[in-house]
Amino acid sequence: MGYLTFLPLILLLSMPLLFPTATSDDSPLLNKICSNNSGTYSDGDAYAKNVKYLLDLFYNRTSANNRFLKESWGPDGTSAAYGLALCRGDVSPDDCDDCLYDARCKITRRCNSTAAMVWYDNCQVRYSDKNFFGKIDTDDNIIMINVENMTNNNAEKFRETTIELLTDLSKHASSTEEMLAGGDRFFNQNVTVHGMAFCTRDLSSGDCKTCLNWAVKELPIYKREVYSVGGRVVTASCTVRYEEYVFLHKKANA
């Protein structure tokens, strides 16, 4: 199925972007951001070494640490690096490791910004010279929609079904340890809507719910801009997604 990607104007103006490509582990690269709003570092300096340490740590330990790890490395000040790695809770340890390996390579390739982020279907990795732990970040986001739309006769009912599902999943996700919820909602005999909501696990339950509520309201189908049969909003802190097909690897706290 074809997808269109929409990016906030601020990103288009200020951040070089790499658009979706396939990866060796079949977890598509959704986006990579090298922030121009932060500083830069050079290979071999203290900050570069701290970032490398974190990325190596994430690859080696995230899947074994329940698929989530946040860490800082280096003395407070100009050289300290803060990082976070996360695989979705439905992703197997092997797929998590494969995704983080690709992320480690992609996030440092041609990017020497002191703040960067990479998103895949199965994982995401982020680092910065500023402590972002426990803070909602929806400024860095991407919006993707399926190019296929629901027919006019069913469009509004499909929208209501989708929004109800994602709203319920957002409540569930914010109250679970893994901050992930997946489920489905019957639409008609030919269509079942499948949905997902999840947050990075550095957020509080309340902030997770706030982030997910924001993401749901940013969906083009919520705004009645288009009635796509699939779509997602991906931010640095949370993600919501719906499709006509199953995309989670297993049931996740539906």
TrEMBL record:
Main subcellular location of this protein, as a coarse class: secreted
Superkingdom per UniProt: Eukaryota
Keywords: Repeat, Secreted, Signal
Signal recorded as keyword: yes
Domain Gnk2-homologous residue range list: 29-132, 138-247
A GO-annotated cellular component: extracellular region
Pfam families reported for this sequence: Stress-antifung
Positions in coiled-coil regions: none
Signal peptide: 1-24
Protein's cellular compartments: Secreted
InterPro entries cross-referenced by the UniProt entry: CRR_secretory_protein (IPR050581), GNK2 (IPR002902), GNK2_sf (IPR038408)
Gene3D superfamilies the UniProt entry points to: Gnk2 domain, C-X8-C-X2-C motif
Family, per entry: Belongs to the cysteine-rich repeat secretory protein family.
PANTHER family, sorted: CYSTEINE-RICH REPEAT SECRETORY PROTEIN 38 (PTHR32411:SF43), CYSTEINE-RICH REPEAT SECRETORY PROTEIN 38-RELATED (PTHR32411)
Identification of the protein by name: Cysteine-rich repeat secretory protein 38
